[in-house]
Amino acid sequence: MNDIATDRPNAPQRPVYLDYQATTPMDKRVLDAMMPYFVEKFGNPHSRNHEYGWEAEEAVENARKQIAELIGADEREIVFTSGATESNNLAIAGVAHFYKDQKDHIVTVVTEHKCVLDTCRHLEQEGFKVTYLPVKTDGLIDLAQLEAAITDKTAIVSVMAANNEIGVIQKLAEIGAICRKKGAFFHTDCAQAFGKIPLDVEAMKIDLMSISGHKIYGPKGIGALYVRRRPRVRLQALIHGGGQERGMRSGTLPTPLCVGLGKAAEIAKNEMAQENARLMALRDRFLKTVNGKLPEVFLNGDLDNRLPGNLNLSFAYVEGEGLMMGIKDLCVSSGSACTSASLEPSYVLRALGVEEELAHTSLRIGFGRFTTEAEVDYAADRIVQAVSKLRAMSPLWEMAQEGIDIKSIQWAAH
Amino acid sequence: MAYSEKVVDHYENPRNVGSFDKNDQAVGTGLVGAPACGDVMKLQIKVGADGIIEDAKFKTFGCGSAIASSSLVTEWVKGKSIDEAATIKNTDIAKHLALPPVKIHCSVLAEDAIKAAIEDYRKKRAV
Amino acid sequence: MAVYLDWNASAPMRPEAAEAFARAAVEIGNPASVHAAGRAVRAHVEKAREALAALVGVTPERVIFTGGGTEANALAVHGFGADAAISAVEHDAVAANLPDARRLPVDAQGRIDPVAADLAGAKLVAVMLANNETGVIQPVAEIARRAKAAGARVHCDAVQAAGKIRVDFDALGVDTLAVSAHKLGGPTGVGALIVREGVDVLPLWRGGGQEKGARAGTPNLPGIVAFGVAATIAARELDRWAALAAARDHVVNAVDSARVGTILYGADAPRLPNTLCLGLPGVPAHTQVMALDLAGFAVSAGAACSSGKIAPSKTLLAMGAGEGAGEAIRVSFGPATAPEELAAFAAAYAKFAAGRASARAA
Q1: Which of A317, A360, A410 to mutate to test the interface with B (most CBs of B within 10 A)?
Q2: A interface mutation test: which of C307, C309, C345 has the most A CBs within 10 A?
Q3: 3-state secondary structure at position C137
Q4: Is B106 a catalytic residue?
Q5: How far is C27 from chain A (nearest CA, A)?
């Protein structure tokens, strides 16, 4: 880390990490649970002939149980994958391909993660029809619109639980009930929600759920897909090979990573309530400081139906990338991590109806398990300082202060 | 993306931030870019009776490279005649700041801003 | 705990790699993020890419990290369907992704004949470098030369070979090559596909466009870093692996001198220095494995991939072993295996085999 703010006496030693929706540091307890399976208990869990294999298999099955318990599932319904991206692809493409002789329609939402949208676009090229539901200004879908979109040709409805950019949580139980009634499978991308909010596959009538390890203080390179057994959901595999995971996902199971995901799920289950209360308090503290010192800061997405640690704020008249450069000792994100290298305005914010000029001014700020109150205060101060400085040199801020309506100006297309 | 030292310097210590009275007959104002594209630059020049640019100011909404490009050109135009200033090329700006390919448009915008400011000044004089 | 003689299923992780994993695991940052933490992390990933590239003799930009060897193989071969020709002894990671592919037969030693192999019309030819069960090394360079001349793309599954014998991508002349981390002392859950410049791979799934669009998903950063460390050490230790051939042959000699009718599969073919595939006529493989487990040796019957089933080995069936395909075990070891452990294994094996032979005779 070179970007240490050496000119600020109170600056922390490392950049303050506030990008918990991109990834999370591993919990030490998770790492401790994993390490023996690298070093001493290194057997291949599919080696059924000797103790090395058995102890690895036992560890994998225990992890499967820990994951299942967090979502009210049976451990036999958990399929390990390399991560949520693979899980999303396996769920949507796998169901679409398996049932393609009877059904050819998919319903999803415009604010889904890029990997869901890319999979759907690819399936469209193969001849499937896809309905992309819009969202309201609060980020939630309209349930009547969802119900109307599902036909007897709809194989699968894919709606994410919590959005990666704006943290907005969809009404899963209502969506599940509609899907069940209309006879379509309900898949939900829970990369951001698993381990963060209560989820129950029975109460919410979820048929497939994508799970990520590294978003919940577990390891990278591991995820899972919940696949309902009753009524049974069938899939066509993406990877064929040794026939592991009941043929749905071949490849040697990475025992330490499975153990890590299981341990992370167990910790999340035990600590979710208190952690969420703490994160909400941090979030409110941050908002209070920023709103107290800066006018015209807008929250994107609903505040109540939202992941506790997430904020997505537009700082009007200050361009997001320019702002990020002024707060290099804070790790925040403009747009989601997958695409932010391209720095286009976020399609999620656009879908909420956030105007393009405002979308360019937004930051995603994510608090998490290891965020301290001192860090929150430091970050709020640094952002207030940087925004104030940049507004003082923003021609748009100047116009707004003079009472000029920016929309009334004929901007040259650039 | 790593910014060059010069970009960082101009971003952290921007030169000539501010505004002149745009109704002043000696002032030319260029406003280029668009909020929806994520860049807006306002560049102003104050021209002496001898046709030499005495002072320049800017305000920019945009990324660090956009801020640096506009800050740099305010330094460059000062002391130049308006004809000389009009010859500043975006490639010179990009080269001086070591802008990566994805940031070349920032230097283009800065060149446009100078030209727009000069044109505004000339229009006022022509009246 | 039993003596571990199942290295081809999974090699023990090198302590240096485990340490690197633990260190990287506490670093924060999604490599695709633009901020400072992301930048530091990206540097680690690129260092690992260089290490792996050096192991197989390519430049770093040819390396695509995957979630394992199976995924790397699937990524290289999926989508070719009946337009592919693959060896009859390919691992399921290749074969199961190409159920309709033409099978190229092998001889009794488990080797493909490059001259006789029917490559006509194939758009993809896939031949493994070293077989997971027998350790037999295929004439990949020769097949690749002929396949390329016939206009095919060539894939090589080097999962068992990488780290055990020298693997030189250019000398092999293939277009894609799959490697697994946990077979060479790295962690499970990481692999790589080496892709020749100008060759396009069809992604298995879609998403954030990582690994130049070939493999979407947040990279397994600690795993990749640990893979890099393991690859660096593996490149240094190839001589130690070569020396295992003598130990392997000691076991063979000891077993042979016991005259219990053991068959060594691939005896006349070039083989990995650490692998033995031993057949004992009339004794089911699982009986052998169980007896040896009780005697304190962890070996395997066939590949360790399919959950629990011990079916006759497809590799041995392809070699014409017939009934024998259900009567063979795989013994695989590594530099950490002590010579005394191998000697003890040979003695225990010979004792068990002799017991079975006399029981049959009685």
Answers
A1: A360
A2: C307
A3: strand
A4: yes
A5: 6
Distances A95 to A4, A137, A181, B39, C96 between C-alpha atoms, Å: 48, 31, 18, 44, 19
- The angle, 0 to 180 degrees and rounded to 10, between the axes of the packed helices A255-293 and A51-71 is 30
**CA A302/CA A204 separation, integer angstroms:** 21
Chain A residues whose CB is inside 8 A of the B1 CB are: 341
Interface of B with A (CB under 8 A): 1, 3, 11, 14, 17, 19, 31-42, 58-64, 66-67, 105, 109
| Cβ–Cβ < 8 Å for C91, C136 | no
Average pLDDT over residues A29-36: 96
- The pTM is what? 0.91
Q: Which one is catalytic: B67, B106, B110, B116?
A: B106
Q: Are strands A310-315 and A297-299 parallel, antiparallel or unpaired?
A: antiparallel
Give me the residues of chain C with pLDDT under 50, please: 304-307
Q: CB–CB of A89/A187 below 8 Å? A: no
Cα dihedral C131, C135, C136, C139 sign: positive
Round to whole Å and give the CA distance between C252 and C269.
14
Domains of chain A plus CATH, in order, are: 16-25+271-391 (3.90.1150.10), 28-268 (3.40.640.10)
Are the C-beta atoms of residues C277 and C264 closer than 8 Å to each other? yes
Looking at chain C, which residue has its C-alpha nearest residue A41? C12
Chains within contact range of chain B (3+ C-beta pairs < 8 Å) = A
For A81, C131, C135, C254, the CA distances from C248, given in Å and listed in that order, are: 36, 16, 12, 10
Please list, in sequence order, all residues whose beta carbon lies within 8 angstroms of the beta carbon of residue A283, skipping any fewer than 6 positions away. Answer: A308, A309, A310, A311, A367
Residues of B in contact with A350 (CB under 8 A): none
* Span A289-343, pLDDT tens digits: 999 999 999 999 999 999 999 999 999 999 988 999 999 889 998 754 433 444 5
Is CATH 3.90.1010.10 the classification given to domain B5-122? yes
ipTM: 0.94
